[in-house]
Amino acid sequence: MPGGCAETTDATGNGTVMYAIGVAAGVLTSAVQSLGLVLQRKTHILNASRPESERVPVFRSRTWLVGLALFILSQAIGSVVAMAALPVLVLAPLGANTIMFNALFSMSLLGEPFSPADAAGSMAVAVGSVMITIFGFVPEPKLLLSDIQANASTSIFMVWASLQLAALVALFVASLAMRFKQANDMKGASNLRLALIYVIIAGMLSAQSFLVGKLIVELAKTSLLDSENQFHYGGTYAIYGSMGVYAVLNIGAMNEGMRFYDMSLLVPASFSTFVLFSTANSLIFFQEWSLLPVQTWFVLITSLALILFGTFPFDHHGIFALFTMMSKLSLSSTFVAQGS
Hints:
- By secondary structure, this protein is mainly α.
- Helices cover 77% and strands 0% of the residues.
- It has one domain (14-339).
- The model is unreliable at 1-12 and 316-340 (pLDDT under 50).
């Protein structure tokens, strides 16, 4: 990794304490974030159950505002502490606990089921999280703004960022086209597809926000702990500004998705997107793909496989509905082709 590599964090002494604090903060952040999302979803459900004339904007609901406040609090405080202590390769998969907390809160607050398959998925997610937490530690170099600029200008990252931007634009255009064609009923197959588009967008934006948040925390650490002030540069404030933009867009996309389908599908789908893109962002931006030893690659791939596999039981109803929808669309296309 270019520049700023003289100092690295380690997992001994004070580093072990900070690492443990980071893990605890990551788990607590997942719980608070899940509670906030469930409260927001509850507001959408209650609002949709009212007659059209009695519905009000969700931002006027006290429950929705509490949920939003918890979500923002978890990101502003818990995530900052966790980001300061943990590398992205550990912190992103550790967020899999969000899936378990979401299932528990959805069961208790929304009355959604928690099946034996969900319990098995929870175990898989837990094992994967423990593996990456114990064996996936990667030393982190000190970051300066010049290091960030150098990493962002590498050809491989520029190509990766361009592909993500193109995908986001394509998904957004697709969502606009779908909304133009359909009515906003809450459980149709079209709404499932639209909800999936929104939560994939939210997952991708969350991954970008996560990377930017990590960079902000590292710049603050360098400025405060190493007496190398990075706040003299306009580029630092530009990074802060992009963090706010990503956060607002992420919240907006997730709330749009929650209008159209159950959180039992949306959170696992969004989280799976987030983990995959966050991991890729870390490997490419920090150039870790060329630095990781074989055993770390093995732990990373195995834990990610367990975590992503563990999310499937939580959205099996949504997956069944998605397959049903795709089958109907395929049959419809066949009939249209034959008729023409």
